[in-house]
Amino acid sequence: MNHEQSHSQMIELLIKQGNLRRIKLEKQESEIKSQMDKLQTLNQRFKQCKMDKVQTQKAYLSAYDALFRIVEITLIKGWRTRFAARPHQGFKRLLFDLFPKLTETISVLQLKRLVQTRHHVKKEHISPSQDDRDLMFGTYERCLNESGIANLLH
Question: Are 91 and 68 in contact, with CB atoms under 8 Å apart?
Fold first, then answer.
């Protein structure tokens, strides 16, 4: 089985489980544009906050949300699907599938930690550790470059 078949099988499974939903062909371009606009804003915010020790929460959440948008843009472009119920669960299941080179730099446990840290930062207002920030920022930047989307941002 090749990567494309593997991706398609995973996508179909996540649709059946309710993690993804299909979008209409005529909405595909507007959905991509909307997500790209959000990604552009998040990327700018990330760049502004990344080195600021005071804005660690904002930088972490911006990088996480931008990474989430990259995955969603990839889904919309490739399979005309986007996240539905339990989006972060679907995100965890798809990230390595869509970006297999990530397995060279982060583990499944580290990915789980990225998502858990996001929850703690967002819901409990806990500042992420330097290790958590490094892991998040590196993962975001690798996926941004691997996706080819980095070339489309201003």
Answer: yes
Q: Which domains does the chain carry?
A: 3-20+36-152 (1.20.120)
Question: Residue 88's pLDDT band (boundaries 50, 70, 90)?
Answer: confident
Buried b (16+ CB within 10 A) or exposed e, 52-90: eeebbbbbbbbbbbbbbbbbbbbbbeebbbbbeeeebeb
> What pLDDT was estimated at residue 10?
87
User: How many angstroms separate the CA atoms of 47 and 43, rounded?
Assistant: 6
Decide: pTM greater than 0.90. Answer: yes
pLDDT at 5 over 70: no
